[in-house]
Amino acid sequence: MSPEVFVDVLRDALYIVILLVSAIILPSLFVGLIVAVFQAATSINEQTLSFLPRLIVTILALMFGGHWLTRVIMDFTEGLILSIPSVVG
Fold first, then answer.
1. Alpha-carbon distance 61 to 25, whole Å?
2. Where in the cell is it found (predicted)?
């Protein structure tokens, strides 16, 4: 296995990890920002107020994007397995 192949596989894997994590984290980040602005505007300093909406949005992102997330991981794994003969041989 040449170093170039290893770097390509690692780069693709890191790209997929960043893509999948951002698909889950970014909606939660936006909801947290909206709740923080609401808390700052109303002077409500309750810590649990920001937790529940972020949790719900994260669960919804997993529910609605779960099929896509699984498909991306399966495509990457399938491509990795199919490339084994060309990498080894």
1. 9
2. Cell membrane; Bacterial flagellum basal body
